């Protein structure tokens, strides 16, 4: 039996860690900010705190394109002497002077500055830790325990990460020298290197950083337990082509193709994704090779997540049934292909076009193959997750076999009210929503409700235009009988929150922007670069609670949590 969702209907809050803000952070949310967010949730009856993936990224800072499936992000760690063994105030004052920190804290996350800075501070703390003469025995044992439990992935990751640093932050290992293309030859190179001690010190520093991350995130889990808040993490569907995983286990991935989705009408994406779909640049899985190893790599991922989280969202569950693959890479190359006709594409790819593997859902024989593959992999993940409940990122229209598989496997999925429509395009009544699901207006890939409303209302600006079907549906879901306001105001926001919490769905989660009624967006699908995944909350939680606009909105949302019966049991 898979681990079940909480039996009581509960409310939750979705806040990416990078978007959190606290008074003394370093320009990005960190584990102390997570502790403050847990306290905020507990104070306002939110029983679930949902996060995005927390694994390490380099270059592309999308949490869904990590360079490792197991190592945690150094950028999200708290860098205070009490939280990092070996870290001193002198190190912080030297590497991160107050004037620079004040600059980094302004506005969105400045990934290109914050990530190198935090890595530099952590590596200096690691060097200092190695020179300490009086390390408490329990701390030494804790360090040894971490390395023992991480032995299946840590040595390979630290070797890979050392080479990334040797190449100036370039994780594209296929561009490295030939002797670095495999772990075995890289180990030989390291053993014979005249500057081996320098490189080994770097490698030890990456072990140290992951130990610090392990300690901090276990402390986050403990604090959540003490406050009665359940943490929902997320396992990204794939890993970067330039990842430690692909470098260490190349047989598990198909590097000739690139994973993504076909064009979907219910998603707003960038222009490059309109013709051929979203190309994420992720290497597809070779499931036959995973199967031959009893899915050990996949099992390890789930087991790792369960150390820190009570629940885990599975990104892109459709992809476990069948993958949509491109014969070209993502990013800039996908932008180039977006302008080409089908014949022009074939001329460049030797006749290849994007395709589903095993096959399309529209054909009965391949749909059966998709169903068998998805059920097998999902069952493996449920088994590996142990007591951690899983929630599938699968919503809206889906093949009938997928819906049946969700029911048969008792797998919760997502319900987005504006996607739940009948054949005529009318919203389904909330009583027909799947009970075993998490209902939300959107997630990190969607515009917040304030931005959605603004876009839908634009058509009424002339004064004589009729509301669009989507606007009519939205207002109907909120049971809003008054004229549509010019912009999302506190009254309509409250009605939308109330409607969400009154659904029969087991979990109802507000994205933090939908709690506050702001229009900031975390990601536009298909976009890439340093200016994505960087929006942050305007203020720390205590200041938001006191804010003349946001404070009452927070209190109103708490009221609906209580009146809808979603407050956690005392």
Number of strands: 12
Structural class: alpha/beta
**Terminal Cα span:** 27 Å
Radius of gyration equals 24 Å
Mean pLDDT: 94
What is the count of helical runs? Answer: 22
- Major beta sheet, specifics? 8 strands, parallel
3D architecture notes:
The protein has 570 residues and is α/β, with parallel strands linked by helices. It has 22 helices and 12 strands. It has an 8-stranded parallel sheet with strand order 9-6-3-2-1-12-11-10. Strands 5-4-7-8 form a 4-stranded antiparallel sheet. It is globular, with a radius of gyration of 24 Å. The mean pLDDT is 94.
Task: Name some characteristics of this structure.
570 residues; alpha/beta; 8-stranded parallel beta sheet; 4-stranded antiparallel beta sheet; 22 helices; 12 strands; 42% helix; 9% strand; globular
Strand and helix layout:
Elements: E1 10-14, H1 31-43, E2 48-50, H2 89-95, H3 98-105, H4 111-131, H5 137-149, H6 154-166, H7 183-192, H8 196-227, E3 230-235, H9 244-248, E4 258-261, E5 278-282, H10 287-292, H11 296-305, E6 311-314, H12 318-321, E7 323-326, H13 332-337, H14 342-349, E8 355-357, H15 364-385, E9 389-392, H16 400-408, E10 413-415, E11 437-439, H17 449-457, H18 469-477, H19 490-501, E12 507-511, H20 512-516, H21 541-546, H22 550-563
Helix pairs in contact: 1-8, 4-8, 6-8, 11-15, 19-22
What is the structure about, briefly put?
The protein is of the alpha/beta class. The protein is built from 22 helices and twelve strands.
């Amino acid at each position: 039996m898979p681990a079940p969702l909480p039996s009581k209907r509960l409310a939750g809050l979705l806040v990416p860690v990078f978007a959190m803000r606290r008074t003394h952070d370093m320009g990005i949310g960190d584990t102390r900010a997570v502790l403050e967010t847990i306290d905020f949730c507990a104070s306002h009856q939110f029983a679930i705190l949902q996060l995005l993936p927390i694994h390490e990224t380099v270059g592309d800072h999308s949490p869904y394109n990590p360079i490792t499936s197991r190592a945690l992000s150094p950028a999200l760690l708290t860098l205070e002497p009490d939280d990092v063994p070996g870290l001193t105030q002198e190190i912080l004052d030297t590497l991160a002077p107050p004037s620079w920190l004040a600059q980094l804290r302004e506005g969105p996350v400045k990934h290109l500055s914050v990530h190198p800075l935090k890595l530099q501070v952590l590596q200096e703390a690691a060097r200092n830790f190695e020179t300490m003469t009086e390390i408490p025995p329990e701390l030494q044992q804790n360090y040894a325990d971490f390395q023992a439990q991480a032995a299946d992935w840590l040595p390979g990751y630290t070797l890979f990460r050392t080479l990334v640093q040797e190449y100036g932050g370039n994780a594209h290992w296929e561009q490295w020298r030939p002797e670095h293309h495999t772990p075995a030859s890289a180990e030989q190179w390291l053993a014979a290197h005249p500057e081996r001690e320098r490189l080994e010190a770097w490698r030890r520093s990456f072990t140290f950083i992951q130990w610090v991350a392990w300690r901090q995130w276990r402390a986050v889990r403990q604090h959540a337990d003490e406050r009665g808040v359940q943490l929902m993490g997320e396992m990204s569907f794939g890993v970067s082509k330039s990842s430690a995983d692909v470098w260490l286990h190349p047989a598990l991935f198909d590097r000739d193709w690139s994973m993504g989705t076909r064009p979907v009408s219910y998603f707003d994406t960038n222009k490059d994704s309109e013709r051929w779909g979203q190309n994420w640049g992720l290497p597809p899985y070779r499931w036959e090779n995973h199967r031959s190893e009893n899915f050990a790599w996949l099992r390890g991922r789930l087991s790792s997540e369960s150390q820190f989280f009570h629940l885990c969202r599975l990104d892109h569950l459709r992809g476990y049934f069948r993958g949509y693959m491109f014969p070209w890479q993502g990013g800039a190359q996908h932008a180039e292909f977006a302008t080409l006709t089908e014949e022009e594409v074939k001329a460049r790819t030797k006749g290849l076009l994007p395709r589903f593997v095993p096959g399309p859902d529209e054909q009965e024989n391949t749909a059966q193959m998709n169903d068998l593959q998805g059920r097998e992999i999902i069952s493996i993940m449920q088994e590996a997750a142990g007591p951690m409940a899983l929630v599938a990122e699968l919503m809206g229209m889906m093949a009938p076999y997928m819906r049946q598989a969700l029911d048969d496997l008792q797998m919760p999925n997502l319900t987005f009210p504006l996607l739940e429509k009948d054949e005529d395009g009318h919203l389904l009544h909330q009583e027909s929503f799947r009970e075993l699901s998490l209902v939300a207006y959107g997630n990190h890939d969607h515009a917040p409700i304030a931005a959605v409303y603004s876009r839908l209302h634009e058509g009424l600006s002339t004064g004589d235009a009729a509301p669009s079907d989507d606007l009519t549906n939205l207002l109907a879901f909120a049971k809003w009988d008054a004229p549509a306001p010019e912009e999302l105001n506190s009254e309509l926001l409250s009605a939308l929150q109330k409607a969400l919490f009154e659904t029969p769905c087991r979990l109802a989660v507000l994205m933090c922007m939908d709690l506050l009624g702001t229009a900031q967006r975390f990601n536009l699908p298909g976009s890439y670069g340093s200016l994505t995944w960087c929006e942050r909350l305007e203020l720390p939680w205590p200041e938001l609670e006191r804010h003349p606009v946001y404070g009452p909105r927070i209190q109103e949302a708490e009221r609906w949590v209580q009146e809808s019966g979603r407050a956690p049991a005392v």
